[in-house]
Write a structure and sequence with these properties.
By secondary structure, the protein is an alpha/beta fold. It has one domain: Rossmann fold. 37% of the residues lie in helices and 25% in strands. It is built from six helices and six strands; from the N terminus they run βαββαβααβαβα. Strands 2-3-1-4-5-6 form a six-stranded mixed beta sheet, sandwiched between helices. Helix 5 links the parallel strand 5 and strand 6. The chain is globular, with a radius of gyration of 15 Å. It binds guanosine-3'-monophosphate-5'-diphosphate and magnesium ion. The site of guanosine-3'-monophosphate-5'-diphosphate has 18 residues, from helix 1.
Length: 178
């Protein structure tokens, strides 16, 4: 790979309020805020990291979860090289909906690298989705890496972004013989 660096587009998907924006903020700024206004459309954050001593820029796209804007979502998905699927462990429906996000994205992007995030694990007493269920879903998505995260405490946040970056790097290397 050339040392100029690469930009990898990563899309973060999942139902509204599962913590997508918070996870991105936590990783890109190391801070957690609870005063977000509802995301409209999409925005993206950029952060650089090194993979095998190569500088990589992750461009992380975050879409608001409005189900009816499917035209917008097609544009949002285009060119994505990796996906982070997020659900909220305190809301079973957000867990069940991951397969819908997966099916939709797959139609547009095909079989790209992906990870599954079970977010808000700090909410112990409100937890409804067990680790076992999370594991089962990760299997269903093709045996993908599974992380139990908290955008609030930072648990596993660095690890999941590092992992998707590594996976996209390996995938791009293989695909383009870089
Ligand atoms: P979204 O981008 O997926 O729509 P947000 O979700 O990042 O906007 O988060 C939705 C709400 O969940 C926010 O609360 C946010 O603070 C909270 N949240 C996100 N991640 C976590 C987490 O890991 N743990 C806990 N306890 N809360 C989290 P508000 O009250 O601001 O709407
Ligand atoms: Mg958001």
């Amino acid at each position: 790979m050339k040392s100029l660096g690469f930009v990898f587009k990563i899309v973060v998907v999942g139902d509204g309020a599962v913590g997508k924006t918070s996870l991105i903020k936590q990783w890109t700024e190391g801070t957690f805020r609870t005063d977000y206004i509802l995301t409209i459309g999409s925005n993206f954050a950029v952060k650089s990291l090194n993979i095998e001593d190569k500088p990589i820029k992750l461009q992380i796209w975050d879409l608001a979860g409005q189900p009816h804007f499917s035209d917008v979502r097609v544009l949002f998905y285009k060119g994505a090289m990796g996906t982070m699927y997020v659900f909220d462990v305190s809301r079973t429906e957000s867990y069940e909906n991951v397969v819908k996000w997966y099916d939709e994205l797959r139609n547009i992007c095909g079989d790209i690298p992906r990870v599954l995030l079970a977010n808000k694990v700090d909410l112990n007493d409100q937890r409804k989705v067990t680790t076992e269920k999370g594991d089962a879903l990760a299997e269903r998505l093709g045996g993908v890496p599974y992380f139990e995260t908290s955008a609030k405490t930072g648990q596993q946040v660095h690890e999941c972004f590092q992992k998707i970056a590594q996976m996209v790097y390996d995938w791009a290397k293989k695909k383009q013989s870089l």
